[in-house]
Amino acid sequence: MNPEPYITVENLTFQYHSRTEPAIIDLSFEVFPGEVLLIAGSSGCGKTTLMRCINGLIPHTYRGQISGIITLLGQPISSLSMADLSQTVGTLLQDPERQIVGSYVKNEVAFGLENLGVSRDEIIRRVDETLEYLGILHLRDRETFSISGGEKQKVALAGVLVMQPQVLLLDEPLSSLDPASAHEALRLFRELADRGIAVMIVEHRVEDVLSINPERVLYLDEGCQKYYGSTDGLMDVVDYHRIKLPADIVVQRAKGRAVVPFEPLLTPQPGEPLVKFENVSFRYRDDLPDVLHDISFDVKKGDVIAILGHNGAGKTTLVKHALGLLKPTSGRVLLEGKDTQKVTVAQAAHTIGYVFQSPT
């Protein structure tokens, strides 16, 4: 006997009040327990809007015109309150900064359970079990502002999993993760599905998600459903310029196309560096280990420098030192020859522009 779908979507269309065209148009699909559904498509195709329709943010938070039917465990979602939905559907947002509300990791993960009135002993047990399951128990007593973007995403996921949802919605869960962490996260998502959870993954990095053999793929283009089925048929309908496909597929399709040569617009220049790190070490608190340890390098006009490292390695902390947002525990950072200890953030902004990991 085949299981009943956890989620059924029939002819779903939604248009935001602020838009002149629908964000999603006539979508129909099912998600079964123990199944991974990959939702693929380029930016702006309606993937996040679809997630909002399933977790109740549409229409409870985002207003607009909606038609079609969504059922969750046999009940129309329109008949369920946000409180009811939150106990069945867990959502990991694309930007973990918008999801984290607690000052400390343990408080953040416990937040949902506290709102349900779960006993203190049960909360402590489930929080510790979830953190250990995700391999981040060592972050339990850390302040959330002091952890990296990738670590924040894992903490946000812990806050979702501790609620023991039956449906898990993941909105670009690999966006803040290094390759090793992304591989581990995907293994975890597959494991959660194998335990009976219905897992829906919105992701541009299609190649990576295909490695865990999703049962079905939903491909969207400009809000329309272009493909729904097994992974076998996906390669025939997608454009490798718009989403990341396996390398062998890209190479096959790119054969015979001319490669445009690239010439740097500006060659590295001699002279004094714009930014100079001299034996910089940094820790967020005296009782915590160094995040940066004895870092020294120069950045000169015309340089292009890639800063690589696993989640929590200190990449964002390093960049914030160049801006003067953080000051070294030892060593110094020079900005056009001036010690950032004596430079205000406003003054530094005349020299350095900064695009945050999260645009919000």
Tell me the CATH topology of the largest domain: Rossmann fold
Provide the residue-averaged pLDDT: 88
CATH class (first level) name of the largest domain: Alpha Beta
CATH architecture of the largest domain: 3-Layer(aba) Sandwich
How many distinct beta strands? Answer: 14
Low-confidence stretches: none
Radius of gyration: 23 Å
Textual characterization of the structure:
The strands form three sheets. Strands 6-7-8-3-9-10 form a six-stranded mixed beta sheet, sandwiched between helices. The termini are far apart. It contains eleven helices and 14 strands. The chain is of the alpha/beta class and 360 residues long. The chain folds into two domains: 7-254, P-loop containing nucleotide triphosphate hydrolases (Rossmann fold), CATH 3.40.50; 275-348, Rossmann fold (3-Layer(aba) Sandwich), CATH 3.40.50.300. The protein has helices spanning 47-55, 57-60, 82-86, 105-115, 120-133, 149-161, 179-194, 206-210, 247-254, 315-323, 345-348, and strands at residues 7-16, 24-31, 36-40, 64-72, 75-76, 89-92, 167-171, 198-202, 216-221, 224-229, 275-282, 292-299, 330-335, 338-339. Strand 9 (216-221) and strand 10 form a beta hairpin. The chain is globular, with a radius of gyration of 23 Å.
Question: Summed up, what is this model?
Answer:
The protein is of the alpha/beta class and 360 residues long. The protein is built from eleven helices and 14 strands.
